Amino acid sequence: MKKTVDEHADRFDDHAPDYDDEKTEEHHRSAELVVEHASPEPDDVVVDIGTGTGAIALALAPDAGRVIGRDISEGMMDEARSKAADAGLENVEFGYGTFREPEYDGDVDVVTSNFAMHHLSDEAKREAIAVIADLGPRTFVLGDVMFFDEPDPDAPFYSPDVDDPATVGLLADAFTDAGFSLTAVERIHDQVGVLVAERTPTADVEDASDE
Ligand SMILES: C[S@@+](CC[C@H](N)C(=O)[O-])C[C@H]1O[C@@H](n2cnc3c(N)ncnc32)[C@H](O)[C@@H]1O
User: Fold this and answer.
1) Cβ burial 159-194 (10 Å sphere, 16+ → b, else e)
2) Which Pfam families does its entry note (predicted)?
3) Whose CA is nearest to atom 23 of ligand 1?
4) Which pairs from 166-174 meet CB under 8 Å and 24+ separation?
């Protein structure tokens, strides 16, 4: 990680009031695709990590049973809480949690994250994906800055001094190692994509379904 969790939190606290006005078209498209692929059932519990001002959490709340937003920036989550109140959404809550320590131990059906995991080093991303797998979701939808081709530091999606995007290959390997199968890859830009990971059925489950 090029900055500590606290440094990232301070940075986003400062950006929070203007954050929603500064997103790129690709960021918006990524959010749309994350929401579309997450597609929760009415009783589902969704955990959205790096929830920020709640773009994903608030969009999913009307279709889900409960949505838990986790972030390190109270300033960003205050914006999310205010939007939830304005929209009259009562099944969404926001609180402190990191990718590697989401601070949630209930049942989880779907995990989402949009434009946030690229703040972690590749090793930390691998650990985070393993932690998320341990939460037990059937689906994990990750939208983020990621490299389909060679990194281009001049593209507007990341700052090399603070961000650390991974290659799609590394993310795909991390998902597989954590027990997920990639079921969709959406390439929005050479450096922005959405990956949909579903829990890979275990041998026991496959055997049982054969009986
Ligand atoms: C670019 S914003 C994206 C917010 C939102 N998901 C969206 O699509 O608009 C990234 C968010 O990730 C959060 N973040 C950064 N590092 C994090 C970490 N290690 N764990 C949890 N959240 C983190 C930041 O505080 C920030 O709110």
Assistant:
1) eeeebbbbebeebbebbeebebeeeeebebbebbbb
2) Methyltransf_25
3) 50
4) 166/117, 166/118, 166/122, 166/125, 168/193, 168/195, 170/122, 170/125, 170/126, 171/125, 171/129, 171/142, 171/146, 171/195, 174/125, 174/126, 174/129, 174/130
**Is the C-alpha dihedral spanning 93, 140, 158, 160 positive or negative?**
positive
- Cα of 209 from ligand 1 centre, angstroms: 39
- Cα(58)–Cα(81) distance, integer angstroms: 9
**pLDDT number for residue 158:** 83
pLDDT of residue 211: 47
Burial bucket for residue 123 (CB in 10 Å: 0-12, 13-18, 19+):
exposed
- Taken in order of first residue, the domains within the chain and their CATH numbers are 5-210 (3.40.50.150)
pLDDT per position as a tens digit, 31-61: 999 999 999 999 999 999 999 999 999 999 9
152 confidence band (pLDDT: 50, 70, 90):
confident
Ligand 1 atom closest to Cα of residue 124: 19
pTM: 0.94
**Span from the CA of 43 to the centroid of ligand 1 (angstroms):** 26
Ligand 1: which residues within 6 Å by Cβ? 5, 8-9, 12, 31, 49-52, 55-56, 71-73, 76, 98-99, 114-116, 119-120
